[in-house]
Specification:
The complex is a heterodimer of chains A (about 300) and B (about 200).
Chain A: E1 8-13, H1 19-25, H2 29-38, E2 40-43, H3 53-58, E3 65-69, H4 86-93, E4 99-103, H5 105-109, E5 142-144, H6 151-164, H7 176-179, H8 190-194, H9 210-213, H10 235-238, E6 260-261, E7 264-265, H11 274-284
Parallel strand pairs in A: 1-2, 1-3, 3-4, 4-5
Antiparallel strand pairs in A: 6-7
Chain B: H1 3-22, H2 29-36, H3 40-46, H4 50-73, H5 79-96, H6 98-108, H7 112-115, H8 126-141, H9 150-169, H10 181-192
The chains are: A alpha/beta (about 300), B mainly alpha (about 200).
Bound molecules: iron/sulfur cluster (SF4) (2 copies).
One iron/sulfur cluster binds near residues 193, 217 and 236 of chain A.
Chain lengths: ~300, ~200
C-alpha cells in the first residue's frame, strides 16, 4: 500500500442490532482519530458517506477492508439491503476486497440470529461465502467475536493487517494476539476465585461470580480484563458475570447460571481435570480468610 | 515409595490398631514404639508428636478408600453399579481392617481438637471427598441421580456406611457384614435416585 493512499474500509450491516457500530463509535477519541487519519471509511450505513452501497456495487469500486456486522441470510423475506439479500451482497462485495473481517459474534458464527427458528439459513460469514468465492480471499476471514466486539480489537486488527498483511488466527478464526487469553485473566476477582468466595448478589465488588452467577470467564477467550471497556471497566469488574460472548456457542441458554450437578459445577476451567479442580476447591473452601469475607472498603 | 515412607506407613498401621483397641488418649508414643520394637527416640524421627501422627493417619486411612473409589469411578459402569461396588469395598475394609474405619469414626470424628489445626474442613480427607463428588456429579449429569445439594447427598452415603461400620464394631450384627452389602447399597441408591416427573 502506498503511503499517501489510505486503505479503504467498507462497513456492511447485515442482520444486526447495531451493537458493534455503537461499540466502534465509542472508541476513545485518540484511537478514533488515529483510525480516521489512517483509513478511509468509504461507507457505513449509520454514518453520512459520499457514496451509497448501490453505487459501490454498480461502479464496481474496489476497497481494502470489508467489515461485516450482523448475520447473513439468503432469504430476502426476512432481510434485504438495497434489494439484495445479505448473502448476495456479501458475495458481490467479497470480490472487491482484500480482507474480510467479521465484526461481532453474529457476523462470525450467526450469533443470536442463528437461533431464530423460522429461518434456518442464518449463518456467519465464513459459512456464507459461495463456493466460487470461498477461496478468492488472500487472507482467511478474520472473526472478531464478541457481543459486541471491543473497538480496540477492531482497530488493532485493521492496523495489523494494514501494516503486516497478515494475522495469526486460532482454530475458530479469531486473531490469536487478541483472543489467546481468557476473560478470567486480569479479573479483579481472581483472589476470590482462588479461595472460593462467592459474590452474594449482582453488582457487588466482593466475591467471584463463578458458582452462583454463571461467570464464564475461566472458559472464555477474550482480553476484556486486560483491554478494558471504555478504558475503565469490564463486566466482571462491575459485578456482572462474563457470559462468554466471544465463544462459538454464544448465546447459550441460562446464561446467568452455572449448571451444577449435586452442587458441583458441570464445567470446570479450561484444561483443568475435574478431579484436580474438585480436590483443590474442596480444600480452598475450608480456609476462611477474614479479609476476603468482608467489604473491601468498610 | 521411599523406605522412610514405608516405615511411616508401618507405624501408622500399628498405631491404628492400638488406637482402636485402647483409644486415642490411652495410647502413647512409647506404646507405639514398643509395639514396633523401636526406640522412642527413633519414633520421633518419623513423627514429631502424636498429633502429627494422628493427622498422617487420617490421610492414610481415607486414602485407602479414596483409591478404591477412584478405581470404581473410572470404570465404565452405571452409577448404580458404582454405588454397589463401593459399598462392597467399604464393608470389606470394615471386615478386614476394622481399625482403619474405626479410626475415622472413633478418633477423627470424636476428637476434633486434635485435628483442628492442619486438618481443617476437608484438608486431610480431600482425596476421598473428591471421589465422592465425582461419583455424585457423574450420576446426576447422566440423570441416574436427582439434583440436590451436595451435603445431604454426601451424608446419605457416609451416614449409611459409617453407621454400618459402627454396628459391626459394636458386634450387634446377626449375619456376616458382607451379607448386608447389597441392601445397604440399595438404600443409598434409592436415596439418591432420579425420579421421573
Ligand atoms: S468473576 Fe469470573 S472472570 Fe472473575 S475471577 Fe470469578 S470466574 Fe474469573
Ligand atoms: S467479559 Fe465476557 S461476556 Fe463480557 S464482553 Fe468480555 S467476553 Fe463478552
Amino acid at each position: 500500500m502506498k503511503k499517501d493512499k489510505k486503505p479503504k474500509v467498507l462497513w456492511l450491516q447485515a442482520i444486526t442490532c447495531n451493537g458493534n457500530t455503537h461499540s466502534f463509535l465509542s472508541a476513545n477519541n485518540n484511537r478514533m482519530r488515529l483510525f480516521l487519519n489512517s483509513f478511509d471509511l468509504i461507507y457505513h450505513p449509520s454514518l453520512t458517506t459520499d457514496i451509497t452501497i448501490k453505487e459501490i456495487i454498480e461502479k464496481k469500486i474496489n476497497f481494502d477492508f470489508l467489515l461485516v456486522e450482523g448475520a447473513i441470510s439468503s432469504n430476502k423475506e426476512f432481510f434485504s439491503i438495497s434489494g439484495y439479500s445479505p448473502y448476495e451482497m456479501l458475495n458481490i462485495l467479497v470480490k472487491r476486497t482484500k480482507y474480510l473481517i467479521a465484526v461481532g459474534s453474529c457476523a462470525s458464527y450467526g450469533g443470536l440470529h442463528a437461533k431464530f427458528e423460522q429461518n434456518s439459513d442464518i449463518q456467519g460469514i465464513g459459512d456464507s461465502l459461495s463456493a466460487e468465492n470461498l477461496y478468492i480471499l488472500k487472507h482467511p476471514v478474520v472473526n472478531l467475536t464478541g457481543c459486541p466486539a471491543h473497538p480496540e480489537w477492531i482497530i488493532q486488527t485493521l492496523f495489523s493487517l494494514k501494516d503486516y498483511g497478515k494475522m495469526a488466527l486460532d482454530e475458530k478464526g479469531r486473531p490469536k494476539e487478541l483472543y489467546y487469553g481468557l476473560a478470567h485473566h486480569g479479573c479483579t476477582r481472581n483472589e476470590y476465585f482462588e479461595w472460593k468466595v462467592e459474590v452474594k448478589h449482582f453488582g457487588l465488588k466482593e466475591g467471584c461470580l463463578f458458582y452462583e452467577q454463571g461467570c464464564r470467564g475461566p472458559m472464555t477467550h477474550s482480553n476484556c480484563n486486560k483491554i478494558l471497556w471504555n478504558d475503565v471497566s469490564t463486566k466482571t469488574r462491575a459485578g456482572m458475570p462474563c457470559i462468554g460472548c466471544t465463544e462459538f456457542d454464544f448465546p447459550r441458554e441460562n446464561m446467568l447460571e452455572t449448571k451444577k450437578n449435586i452442587g458441583i459445577p458441570n464445567e470446570v476451567p479450561l484444561e483443568v481435570s475435574k478431579r484436580a479442580y474438585l480436590s483443590l476447591t474442596g480444600v480452598a473452601k475450608t480456609f476462611k480468610i477474614g479479609r476476603l469475607n468482608k467489604k473491601l472498603i468498610d | 515409595m521411599s523406605t522412610k515412607e514405608e516405615k511411616k506407613n508401618n507405624i501408622i498401621e500399628n498405631s491404628l490398631k492400638l488406637f482402636s483397641k485402647n483409644g486415642f488418649y490411652n495410647t502413647t508414643i512409647p506404646d507405639i514404639a514398643k509395639s514396633m520394637k523401636m526406640s522412642v527416640g527413633n519414633m520421633y524421627n518419623y513423627f514429631k508428636s502424636k498429633e502429627e501422627l494422628a493427622k498422617y493417619a487420617i490421610k492414610y486411612s481415607t486414602n485407602i478408600l479414596a483409591k478404591e473409589l477412584k478405581t470404581i469411578n473410572q470404570m465404565n459402569i452405571s452409577s448404580k453399579e458404582k454405588i454397589y461396588l463401593f459399598t462392597e469395598k467399604y464393608l470389606e475394609n470394615v471386615k478386614k481392617s476394622p481399625e482403619v474405619i474405626e479410626y475415622f469414626l472413633r478418633v477423627y470424628l470424636s476428637n476434633r481438637e486434635v485435628f483442628a489445626k492442619g486438618c481443617e474442613g476437608f484438608l486431610c480427607v480431600s482425596e476421598f471427598v473428591t471421589e465422592v463428588m465425582i461419583l455424585l456429579d457423574e450420576g446426576a449429569s447422566n440423570k441416574e441421580f436427582r439434583q440436590q445439594d451436595f451435603f445431604p447427598a454426601f451424608a446419605v452415603i457416609m451416614g449409611a456406611l459409617g453407621g454400618f461400620a459402627f454396628l459391626s464394631g459394636e458386634k450387634v450384627l446377626e449375619k456376616d457384614i458382607m451379607e448386608y452389602s447389597d441392601e445397604v447399597a440399595e438404600n443409598i441408591y434409592r436415596a439418591l435416585k432420579y425420579e421421573e416427573g
